[in-house]
Design a protein that fits this description.
The structure holds 2 protein chains of 2 kinds. Chain A is an all-alpha fold. Chain A is 56% helix and 0% strand. In chain A, helix 1 crosses helix 4. Classes of the chains: A mainly alpha, B alpha/beta.
């Protein structure tokens, strides 16, 4: 069964907290990784790798650079 | 046909290192390109690096480091019968570095060859030295990692200019009754050949940073654990972990997953930059010099880089 947006958001919030220390509560769909959460390109790679373990969806580097917001990642994992 | 008889084991007798005298800080680089001290420290972990002048070659760096290792080993030049130089930044392809380094050090007519596996080169060369001594192909081996990356860098390309640097490190390896160098674990990922590449003789070094970072933070901690298993050493008993000094975040990521809780983790990149094949012996030699690690302790060496290639082994610190 496909995960809901809320379930994926909770999972991403937990991953971002573990990698960057940013509180999961600050990870909301409209937030931009670079502009709002101050997450750099290397941390994005770590998040992508952790997301693959968590959700079983590979996010290759050439796709990763197009994922600007938390919502973009949720959509990528759902689709 | 007869076959050769080697020594029961081999061990590292001494390390030596050399860095060019010119320090280049992050602020120096920020003055000529769009970057900053904060950006470099947070992404790569480097505060400053050493860059060799035009009149100091990668051979000069190797001779300095090799000479120091030889002096510290207690052996004389005539005791060395094999010289292996790990490098990927020679100014020209022919001749190799090892013969010239040997001659400059007064080592007479040794076997002499270079190894090019880029940043993993020292660990490959050390494994070959170990095997040569145990097989009876050599008695004492000088292994040098030397790089002058600055001559292959586009100094307007901030993605590489802030990372790479110059330096050399060396080890003298000799026979031993007990093993001082554990089994090597080596391998490659040639499908990622273009992740770190100099395309032709007119090109500069290019690196796909995210690709390398992803590979290094996912593929290498299992290799580190396998090296310990092959040597029969619990990571918790390691005195030092000396990975290739590629990026502080890669170093910390692998160290965290390795579980080497008592080990001093080499973070020489902060003041030395990424010196490719030189980084592991350079880092460990400096740790020994500062008294951060003790003789007899076990260190895990782990090289990785262009190819992509990797290699590593557990060694007893001289």
């Amino acid at each position: 069964m496909a995960l809901s947006e809320q379930e994926i958001l909770a999972g991403i919030g937990k991953i971002i907290n573990e990698i960057t220390g940013i509180p999961a509560s600050e990870v909301t769909p409209e937030k931009s990784f670079v502009d709002d959460l101050d997450i750099d390109s290397l941390s994005m790679v770590e998040i992508a790798v952790a997301a693959q373990d968590e959700f079983g969806v590979e996010i290759p580097d050439d796709q990763l650079k197009h994922l600007k917001t938390v919502k973009d990642v949720i959509n990528f994992i759902q689709n | 046909m007869k076959i050769s008889q080697g020594a029961p084991g081999a061990k590292i007798l001494a390390f030596g290192h050399y860095q060019p005298s010119k320090v280049v800080t992050n602020d120096d680089l920020s003055a000529t390109m769009e970057t900053s001290d904060e950006w470099i420290q947070s992404r790569v972990g480097i505060k400053e690096r050493r860059i060799a002048p035009d009149n100091e070659s990668e051979i000069d760096l190797a001779v300095q480091a090799g000479g120091k290792a030889l002096a510290a080993s207690g052996l004389s030049a005539s005791d060395i019968d094999l010289v292996i130089v790990a490098t990927c930044t020679l100014e020209a392809q022919i001749p190799n570095a090892a013969g010239r380094v040997a001659t400059r050090l007064g080592i007479d007519a040794p076997g002499a060859f270079d190894v090019n596996t880029a940043c993993s080169g020292f660990c490959y060369a050390l494994a070959v030295a170990n095997d040569a001594i145990r097989a009876g192909s050599a008695t004492n081996v000088l292994v040098v990692g030397t790089e002058k990356l600055s001559q292959w860098i586009d100094w307007t390309d901030r993605s590489t200019a802030v990372i790479f640097a110059d330096g050399a490190g060396a080890a003298v390896v000799g026979p031993s009754e007990t093993p001082g160098i554990g089994p090597v674990v080596w391998g490659s990922a040639g499908d990622k050949f273009d992740a770190i590449i100099i395309k032709d003789r007119d090109s500069f070094l290019h690196q796909e940073g995210q690709t390398v970072f992803r590979w290094a933070t996912t593929a290498l901690h299992p290799v580190a654990k396998e090296i310990c298993e092959r040597a029969g050493v619990d990571p918790a008993d390691l005195a030092a972990f000396v990975p290739h000094q590629a990026n502080l975040r890669i170093i910390e990521s692998i160290a965290r997953r390795l579980g080497a809780d008592k080990a001093v983790v080499a973070k020489d990149i902060v003041l030395a930059g990424n010196t490719s094949a030189a980084s592991i012996p350079l880092a460990l030699s400096r740790m020994i010099e500062r008294g951060e690690v003790q003789s007899g302790g076990l260190a895990l060496l782990l090289g990785f880089g262009a190819g992509l290639t990797y290699a590593g082994q557990v060694i007893e610190i001289p």
